[in-house]
UniProtKB/TrEMBL annotation:
PANTHER family: EXONUCLEASE, POLYMERASE_HISTIDINOL PHOSPHATASE N-TERMINAL DOMAIN-CONTAINING PROTEIN. Residues 3-70 form the Polymerase/histidinol phosphatase N-terminal domain. SUPFAM superfamilies: PHP domain-like. GO terms for molecular function: 5'-3' DNA exonuclease activity; 5'-3' RNA exonuclease activity. Signal peptide: none annotated. InterPro entries: PHP_dom (IPR004013), PHP_domain (IPR052018), Pol/His_phosphatase_N (IPR003141), Pol/histidinol_Pase-like (IPR016195). It comes from the Bacteria. This is PHP domain protein. It comes from Dethiosulfovibrio peptidovorans DSM 11002. Transmembrane segments: none annotated.
Length: 223
């Protein structure tokens, strides 16, 4: 199953220009099986997720991207978010203690929102976003190398704030995902891998070869 595990909607993130309806439409065009909305520091769309899934006949899950003191952490499976800003290791431990899953978002992005080597100090964190669609390729490569070193689950996310970014990267789940519980369990158990949509082949492929072929990295000014 292919699910974009990191994207932002205009309905939930003030810096996004991506309406949820267009995100769903584009994801369907790319033969995705679902999306997981991760708006900034909010679960605003969570109460509507089931209704939205029924309306669009498409799996729509809701997590969040939370800014910690060390950088952004993607969290999945929470019913509510902490009211106060936390350190990344503490937030990862909190998420794990309530049965959720967490992953470092774009960990080597150099705009103050990547936690970098702090990942090694987060024993309760379950995953690393090794491929992020709005991050410089060499920073993605650093994330991949670190995830391999710490034996972490690996995710891919478009980090879309615009429709045309969807498909840059996503996460392949090696078991059926029909609910947030399914997604959480897969991340916690390492049943994931990053993928990229290949326009020429009209299929999802492993993104590592693409990463190494990019000569001039470009980073979008997103959070």
């Amino acid at each position: 199953m292919i699910i974009d595990t990191h994207l932002h909607t205009i309905e939930g993130s003030p810096d996004s220009f991506l309406p949820l309806e267009r995100a769903v439409s584009r994801a369907k065009e790319l033969s995705m099986d679902g999306i997981c909305i991760t708006d900034h520091d909010t679960l605003k769309l969570a109460p509507m997720a089931e209704e939205l899934s029924d309306r669009y006949d498409f799996l729509i899950l809701v997590g969040a991207e939370i800014l910690t003191y060390e950088g952004d952490l993607l969290v999945y499976g929470l019913d509510r978010l902490p009211k106060n800003k936390m350190h990344a290791p503490d937030l990862a431990e909190l998420v794990s203690s309530v049965g959720g899953a967490s992953a470092a978002a774009h960990p080597f992005r150099d705009n103050g929102r990547g936690m970098g080597e702090v990942m090694r100090l987060c024993p309760h964190m379950h995953g690393v976003e090794t491929f992020n669609g709005s991050t410089k390729p060499h920073h993605n490569e650093m994330a991949l190398e670190t995830a391999l070193e710490i034996s972490s689950s690996m995710l891919g996310g478009s980090d879309s704030h615009w429709e045309d970014r969807i498909g840059l990267f996503a996460t392949q789940f090696h078991r059926p995902v029909r609910s947030m519980t399914d997604l959480v369990n897969a991340v916690r158990e390492g049943a994931t891998s990053p993928v990229r949509y290949d326009e020429e082949a009209s299929s999802w492929i492993h993104p590592e070869a693409y990463l190494r072929s990019v000569a001039f990295p470009v980073e979008q000014p997103t959070l």
